[in-house]
């Protein structure tokens, strides 16, 4: 397959995934028209030859499509391929953590985001999400420490804590309150 044709398949797949993601609403069931877009993206990716088919870009797109369709177990393999590709794949590490969390595998979600931090140290989005997972796992000290680091890098994350349900298990802990409230 010629290079421009491979590129076209990847562009089409990316477009289908992005359109589908616009139609997905959090934890609500995936609408049929969004599911069709994700399936179409997967068809575009299936048309690619190796090694492009299992390369980092195609793997990330496949993982996103599967994750957004709610097939979290199937999304893990392509997201892991993308994350471990050696390039900066922040979205792949976050996607892995997201899938593991929804599968009830918090230890693996935490491990995935720790691995992501090895490739992107100090990334506030990884720190914030890792804080969420530690909160859910009951690791208050780790959650507060990671959240404090995320907020120190980007104060925007402080605003998110008020509505983030992942912090409900530690919301009343004095360490969490101290980390999330600004004293003037």
Question: Short description, anyone?
Answer:
This protein is mostly helical.
Amount of beta strand:
under 5%
Provide the succession of SSEs: HHHHHHHHHH
- Helix/strand structural class: mainly alpha
What is CATH's topology name of the largest domain? Serine Threonine Protein Phosphatase 5, Tetratricopeptide repeat
The helix count comes to: 10
How many β-strand stretches?
A: 0
CATH arch. level architecture of the largest domain: Alpha Horseshoe
Average pLDDT: 93
The amount of helix comes to: 55-70%
Number of domains: 2
Main sheet overview: none
Radius of gyration: 18 Å
CATH class label of the largest domain: Mainly Alpha
Please tell me what the overall shape is. elongated
Task: Please mark out the parts with pLDDT under 50 across 5 or more consecutive residues, or reply none.
Answer: none
Distance between the termini: 62 Å
Can you describe what's shown?
- The protein has helices spanning 3-23, 32-46, 56-68, 72-83, 90-102, 106-119, 124-136, 140-153, 156-160, 174-180.
- It folds into two domains: 1-106, Serine Threonine Protein Phosphatase 5, Tetratricopeptide repeat (Alpha Horseshoe); 122-184, no CATH class.
- Helix 3 packs antiparallel against helix 4 (72-83).
- It is built from ten helices and no strands.
- It is mostly helical and 184 residues long.
């Amino acid at each position: 397959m010629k290079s421009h044709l491979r590129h076209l398949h990847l562009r089409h797949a990316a477009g289908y995934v992005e359109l589908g993601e616009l139609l997905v609403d959090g934890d609500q069931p995936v609408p049929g028209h969004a599911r069709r877009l994700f399936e179409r993206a997967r068809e575009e990716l299936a048309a690619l030859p190796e090694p492009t088919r299992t390369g980092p870009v195609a793997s990330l797109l496949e993982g996103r499509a599967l994750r957004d369709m709610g097939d979290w177990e199937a999304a893990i393999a392509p997201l892991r391929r993308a994350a471990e590709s050696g390039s900066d794949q922040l979205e792949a590490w976050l996607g892995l953590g997201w899938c593991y969390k929804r599968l009830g595998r918090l230890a693996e979600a935490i491990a995935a985001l720790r691995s992501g931090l090895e490739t992107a140290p100090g990334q506030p989005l990884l720190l914030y999400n890792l804080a969420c997972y530690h909160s859910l796992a009951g690791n208050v000290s780790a959650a507060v420490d990671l959240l404090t680091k995320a907020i120190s890098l980007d104060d925007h994350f402080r605003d998110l804590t008020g509505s983030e349900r992942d912090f409900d298990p530690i919301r009343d802990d004095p360490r969490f309150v101290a980390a999330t409230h600004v004293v003037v």
